[in-house]
User: Which sequence fits this backbone?
């Protein structure tokens, strides 16, 4: 038997999955705007907001 969310908007949102989808979208946008074939590791970290511990992780990366 297949479980289906009832009609009426009672579905539960998976916040982790939504965050992952958002990050994938950000990577796709950055890749489409890149001049080279691939994004550098530094640019990927920037897009994914990976910090080396020196910045404010709540601030968006430059260029956004």
Assistant:
């Amino acid at each position: 038997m297949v479980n289906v969310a009832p009609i009426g908007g009672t579905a539960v949102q998976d916040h982790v999955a939504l965050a992952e989808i958002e990050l994938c979208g950000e990577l796709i946008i950055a890749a489409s705007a890149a001049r080279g074939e691939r994004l550098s590791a530094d640019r990927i970290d920037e897009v994914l907001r990976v910090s080396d511990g020196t910045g404010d992780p709540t601030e968006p990366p430059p260029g956004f």
